[in-house]
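Consider the tokenized backbone below.
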């Protein structure tokens, strides 16, 4: 038996449960919310991370040390193979052109060119950072790698 055999007879969509429409419906009275208390009322929601009055998980353990993770630079990255694939010889490649083509996200991250793959076209590449292999491959193809 396959799923399309079942849906052909039953239908694609499950019917919506209508709560609070009488006891005969099976969801009348308290409408599946139980009895009394804040959780039964409209507009109730618990605070994210609240654990019912218990000491929260993040306060149970001592805090020690220091992390530089918040200070690292996050780059929008692209490989030289992608540049070779999407651009014609002699083209100027920079952040704006890559964003317009949808090859990098349209954020504020600096652009970094990585050296994965091969490049055979002469391109003028402008970026914030280059890996050593990317710079070598662009230069070897006759192109120019310029730091922004």
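A designed sequence for it:
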């Amino acid at each position: 038996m396959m799923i399309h055999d079942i849906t052909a007879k039953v239908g694609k969509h499950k019917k919506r449960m209508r709560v609070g429409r009488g006891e005969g419906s099976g969801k009348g009275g308290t409408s599946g919310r139980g009895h009394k208390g804040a959780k039964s009322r409209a507009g109730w929601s618990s605070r994210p991370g609240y654990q019912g009055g218990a000491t929260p998980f993040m306060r149970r353990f001592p805090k020690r040390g220091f992390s530089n993770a918040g200070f690292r630079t996050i780059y929008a990255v692209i490989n030289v193979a992608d540049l070779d694939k999407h651009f014609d010889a002699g083209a100027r490649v920079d952040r704006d052109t890559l964003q317009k083509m949808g090859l990098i996200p349209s954020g504020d991250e600096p652009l970094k060119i990585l050296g994965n793959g091969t490049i055979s076209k002469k391109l003028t590449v402008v970026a914030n950072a280059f890996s050593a292999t990317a710079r070598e491959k662009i230069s070897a193809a006759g192109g120019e790698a310029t730091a922004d």
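The chain has a mean pLDDT of 92.
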